[in-house]
UniProtKB/TrEMBL annotation:
Entry keyword Signal: no
Family: Belongs to the fatty acid desaturase type 2 family.
Membrane topology recorded in Swiss-Prot or TrEMBL: Multi-pass membrane protein
Annotated source species: Vibrio galatheae
Keyword Membrane belongs to the record: yes
A GO biological process held by the record: fatty acid biosynthetic process
Main location per the UniProt record: membrane
Entry keywords, A to Z: Fatty acid biosynthesis, Fatty acid metabolism, Iron, Lipid biosynthesis, Lipid metabolism, Membrane, Oxidoreductase, Transmembrane, Transmembrane helix
Gene Ontology cellular component annotations, sorted alphabetically: membrane
Pfam families: FA_desaturase
Name the UniProt record assigns to this protein: Acyl-CoA desaturase
Length: 375
């Protein structure tokens, strides 16, 4: 059947994915027709689904894989439980895979879920065979996690934790509402299947479908639709270039509940040292990407060299203004910090700053209208 080069199948994973999918597709609607579901099924589904997915996005991904902030042990404990409930292996194992994914993104030989191997492989195929049997011997790319007692505890007891949460939580809720089977189907199986595939979309769809505002050096995309189903992880193009940022959707209007959770927890003292990328770096990356797209399109035009020269001049002007503006901004912040606030109010610095702000805004407009012509 299968070619000699293909590694052996992992039957346990195949059984879990296939049986849960079949139950969700067949038994869940059948039970709904014969017995009916109440509003409590829907509410508990949402609670359990959010608990699982946020444990993966805020815990496994932004905390353990990327260290974008620090979290109180109680929060790490919740993420460890939710991650086992999500049935995505231990945080240590997950982070090890994920760090390789970032380091060798799109490299078919090294990236464990390389999107260049196609939708199916990056979505789920990579978990169905022993593709990486020898990479997990020591988790040497996660030495920092070896010092995290909760992560190591979860790794050691992952199987009992996964079984206890996946059966225990739905059964407990079922006892509460007098419908054990209904809750096992909705909070157990349907929640698991949807939580699995919404997370898997980050590795598949978020590397295929969407825009590339920050870089086209890898396949990662920004996709607002995916962000809705993935608690904000749809802004994957941004994430792959600035992986140390606790945010994926950086603008206030971008839907990133994982970011909101991490930030809210910082007000309660549960998270700290939230890392963000300096604004100037973000804007530079964006302008560079727009430059490369525009100049590629200009190359098709008859007067390419002249247009490219003008484009590059505009780009350099923008870079210069950006550097000046952020430099001045730093000085302003410094002045305020040194309790020079009152002096600052009427100072020359303030005037220069306001002027520079306007200059930069004008330069941005001019740059944006230029690249828009060749987008
Ligand atoms: Zn990542
Ligand atoms: Zn990725």
């Amino acid at each position: 059947m299968s070619g000699p080069s293909k590694p052996p199948l992992i039957w346990l994973n195949i059984f879990i994915f296939l049986s849960s999918f079949l139950v969700a597709a067949l038994l869940v609607p059948w039970y709904g027709i014969t017995n009916g579901y109440g509003v409590e099924h829907f509410i508990w589904f949402l609670v359990a689904f959010s608990f699982c997915n946020l444990s993966i996005t805020a815990g496994y991904h932004r905390l353990w894989s990327h260290k974008t902030y620090e979290a109180h042990w109680s929060l790490r404990f919740l993420f460890a439980i939710g991650g086992a409930f999500a049935l995505q292996n231990s945080a240590l194992h997950w982070s090890s895979d994920h760090r390789i994914h970032h380091k060798h993104v799109d490299n078919n030989d090294k990236d464990p879920y390389s999107a260049k191997r196609g939708f199916w492989f990056s979505h789920i195929g990579w978990m169905l065979r022993e593709y990486n049997a020898n990479t997990y011997a020591d988790y040497s790319n996660c030495r920092d996690l070896h010092k995290d007692k909760i992560a190591m505890w979860q790794h050691k007891y992952y199987v009992p934790l996964a079984l206890a949460t996946n059966f225990g939580i739905p059964i407990a809720i079922g006892l509460l509402h007098g419908d054990i089977i209904g809750m096992l189907l909705i909070v157990g199986v349907l929640r698991l299947v949807l939580s699995h595939h919404s997370t898997f979309f980050i590795n598949s769809l978020a590397h295929i479908w969407g825009s590339q505002p920050y870089t086209d050096k890898n396949t990662a995309r920004d996709n607002a639709v995916l962000a809705v189903f993935t608690f904000g992880e749809g802004y994957h193009n941004y994430h792959h270039i600035f992986e140390n940022d606790y945010r994926n959707g950086i603008y206030w209007w971008q839907y990133d509940p994982t970011k909101w959770l991490i930030k809210s927890c910082s007000f309660l003292g549960l998270t700290k040292k939230l890392r963000v990328t300096p604004k100037i770096k973000i804007e530079k990356a964006k302008a560079k990407q727009a430059l490369s797209t525009a100049s590629r399109n200009i190359d098709q035009l008859p007067n390419a060299s002249m247009l490219n020269e003008a484009l590059n001049k505009e780009f350099e002007a923008l870079m210069g203004k950006l550097a000046d503006y952020y430099d001045l901004k730093k000085q302003v912040l410094e002045a305020k910090k040194n309790d020079l606030a009152k002096k600052y109010e009427n100072s020359l610095l303030k005037m220069r700053y306001q002027q520079m702000k306007q200059d930069l805004a004008a330069q941005r407009r001019s740059w944006e209208s230029m690249v828009a012509q060749y987008a």
